[in-house]
Amino acid sequence: MKSYFMCIVISTPVLIMYLLGTVKFIFDHEGNSCEMTYMFEYPEYVHIPLQKEIQQQYPRYGLYVYGEGFTVSRLRAMHFSGIPVLFIPGNAGSHHQVRSLASISLRKSLKDRTPFHFDFFTVDLQGEYSALYGGVLKEQIEFVSHCIRKILKFYGGKIDSVIIIGHSMGGIVGKGVLLDPNMISQVNTIIMLATPHEAALVFDTSIATIYQKLQSSGAPTNKSEMLTISVGGGPRDVLVNSNQIIDRTADLNVLTTHVPGVWKSTDHVSILWCKEFLLAIIRALFDCVDMVARYPRISSNKQHRLEVFNYHLLQRCCGKKMDQYQAKVQFRLGGEWVEDIRRQYTWKAADRIGSKNISQLYLMIRLIGIEDHLTIQTTRLEVKDWLFICSASAIQGHSRVCEWGWNLTNKSRIIPDGTYKKKTADLDLVELKTQRLTHIVIRIPSSIFHKGLSIDVDLHRKSDRILKFQNQPMAAYWGFGKLGTIESNIGDVRYEVDLASDTDSVLLKVINVQCEQQNHRHHATIELLEPCSNGISQVRHFAYENLMPKTLKVQTKNAVDGGKGVGNVPLKLKFTLDPKCRYTIEVFSGGYIETLSTAVRDRWPNLYGVMAGLLLLALATQLDHEAGLFKSTITTVVTLALCVGIGIGPEGFVSLALLQIFAVVICCAVVIFGSTVYNMAQRFLTRALKFSPMWSEWLIGALNQLPLIAPTILLSMVPVTCGALSMFIFVGLQFLKLTRIYEDYLEELLLASLRSNFINRFRDKTKKPSSGEQIQGDTHTDGKQIVFQLILFLTWCIAAIPAIPSVLTWAKNYRFSVKLSTEDPLLKTCWIILVGCGSTGIKWIPPSTPDYYSQAIAIIIRILGWTALAVTGIGYPSQYQYLMPPLITVAVALITIRSLINISS
């Protein structure tokens, strides 16, 4: 009893902290600032009939094409003249979700008057649960393969491949199509939006096998000319976090918080209608079209397509369309060349407005001195080619100028700003000086001169602007403490801070801002760059009207290496400051609650395996009759050492607390609602089977009392429905059994008390212990039976969790087929064994000396419990979650065998 209360004392505070982190993770996010995408005309979905045998094989699914307005009549006639794009909805998603993408694409083709357009096809997958049920996932993959073949037939050989855009599990379905070698050549590009490439929950072997094949080094996407892109929504997406969207086999991984022109986090659904993001995707698709081909199609050059998506999703430097840049550019004669020898300065077009009209202005920055890094920031410079490097070898007037230069514009990028459009470029001068070039040149056409145009130049030594902030030991663990301070000077634009790789979050506070001019509308941008991928970053702004502290949480700490993180690669904070101001910015660890929320986000899938392991250990203890202090100490020490050693110590205490809460809830339900549930079951049988109440009551009693009736009925349901349904009904019957055991226990307890009082009044003190005392002992045994059955019921509930997707799928498809033919064989076997063993009436075995059977079985079940804990802490837990029902099944089978041995003896 003391050990039980000790567990409560330790686990309860851990659970409270875990819940605080959960609330922080789910609810504490920036508001959704995306602009909604609207349709211009009424959207319609034209059904495309498939071959009769395919439609009979997949009666639940359908293929559609999206149309608006005048395009619908052409689509109804099955006349397709565009470039095919297939949208695949995700888990429980709808084919209607294609409308935002398709509508933006249609409007762009009409606005730009392009000689081509895109045909957006979509599949109706009936909102099925592909994320948790492998049978559904396999069927969807097969159906989409047939749809791709059907779509390509419409184009008569003019188009030989499609573009796939998959949302959530739709991305996995799209990649799963490529497991068929014959389908690789029929897919040109696959774009996966909020797709979990590391699943949080994998309850059957089919999903685990598909994931392992897709993530293996020999995956088909690694050997083809197909382009794969994975995009995540960032912090707002609590269903698929940024750790999960990293695809080790993809050509590009990016978050919407990094996409130029977006810089916003999207939740799991808004990524499909966020106008800023969808515009970037559509523009990239339009830029990928090969206009030289006789029939417009997506370019077959994978490298070109990758460059296009890199431009639009990673480092857009200029306009909304990616143009080919001339590597070598000839400068015009007659322009004005200005060389400013200052290392830091700001050039303003307002100072030149009204002066002598010239065609071009060239700002020259000489590559001399000890400075090895150049940062240039432009404001409202709307020109395509503007940044060059050259050798000033020509003479114009009294100065040297350049005749031509190498184009460096592609090394610049647009940056987020709360007021104006800005671009920035960071140039490594050490590398450039080795090429014997003398000047960096910024070209500014006079035709774009206006008051808002300015150029900031910051020539500096990079080592002076890179700071390294290391976590203090306590700050890193508890999530508090100051890491360091940045103090800039007037003219400084760029600062960088390297953070320790174990950082979970950072808090940024602007302590002081002093500008050259009073009431200056200053603006600073801070980016958190994560080492997992170029496209993983977040942005925060400090503007003159908003200097509130900002928090940045690391998103991809456990994204690679099987969930073990990115090693010792540091994170980086990148500061872009207003050069007209002096800043003092302090950097702190993000706080204890932020650390907890990050732990919840990354580690909550561990709970399922840990709870399964702890329940198996509890069963072993019950079977061993709470054997001596030595065995209990050994079990506790080994369990703690195992949990701490593999890094699931916090989850162990949280799982222990959750199991205690579940036990209390079940006990309360048995005490308060037991009779209510029993009466509901009786009324259900009365209506469903049209029995009289007396016959329904007799049937329920027979299911609980007669050992052969319940397993016979439940097991006979398996071949005609599914094993998961039998498992669910079995759990319900076990709850009714708990209520009956509790009622019998109360009745026996009351009778024992009455008998004991009566016998104590008249018994002879010289005789042996009375029958009342014997009854008291029997009542104690009944109490042990209730505790044992309660632990068994919790174990069955944990084992039945993977049956939920199967039951939901069976219920959703009941109108098509009574039998679920795609159930996982391993899980089906587990349900059969659990139902068969549990329905025989497992009872708590009273102590007997010596009881070799119980001790041996208890040792085996302890090993099974430790195995469940061990596999949970190895790599990503989803790789081994499907092993929990088999481990529980072995334990229950052993306990059943022990019960049968006791009965026969």
Describe the 3D structure.
- There is one protein chain.
- The protein is an alpha+beta fold and 905 residues long.
- It has four domains: 43-313, Rossmann fold; 328-460, Jelly Rolls (Sandwich), CATH 2.60.120; 464-592, Jelly Rolls (Sandwich), CATH 2.60.120; 605-904, no CATH class.
- Helices cover 42% and strands 20% of the residues.
- The chain is built from 25 helices and 32 strands.
- The chain has an eight-stranded mixed β-sheet, with helices on both faces. A six-stranded mixed β-sheet has the order 11-19-16-22-14-12, with no helix packed on it. Strands 13-23-15-21-20 form a five-stranded antiparallel β-sheet.
- Helix 16 (629-645) packs parallel to helix 24 (852-872).
- It is globular and about 115 Å long.
Give the topology:
Layout: H1 2-27, E1 43-48, H2 52-57, E2 62-68, H3 71-76, E3 83-88, H4 99-112, E4 118-124, H5 134-153, E5 162-167, H6 169-177, E6 187-193, H7 205-215, E7 227-232, H8 242-245, E8 252-255, H9 275-287, E9 289-290, E10 297-298, H10 302-313, E11 328-330, E12 336-339, E13 344-348, E14 360-366, E15 373-379, E16 387-390, E17 394-396, E18 399-401, E19 404-407, E20 412-415, E21 422-428, H11 429-433, E22 439-445, E23 454-460, H12 462-465, E24 466-469, H13 473-478, E25 482-487, E26 494-499, E27 505-515, E28 523-529, E29 537-543, E30 550-553, E31 571-576, E32 581-589, H14 592-603, H15 606-623, H16 629-645, H17 649-689, H18 693-705, H19 709-717, H20 723-762, H21 771-800, H22 803-812, H23 825-838, H24 852-872, H25 884-904
Parallel strand pairs: 3-4, 3-5, 5-6, 6-7, 7-8, 12-14, 24-26
Antiparallel strand pairs: 1-2, 2-4, 9-10, 11-19, 13-23, 14-22, 15-21, 15-23, 16-19, 16-22, 17-18, 20-21, 25-32, 26-31, 27-30, 27-32, 28-29, 28-31
Helix pairs in contact: 1-14, 1-17, 4-9, 5-6, 5-7, 9-10, 15-17, 15-21, 15-24, 15-25, 16-17, 16-24, 17-18, 17-20, 19-20, 19-23, 20-21, 20-22, 20-23, 21-25, 23-25, 24-25
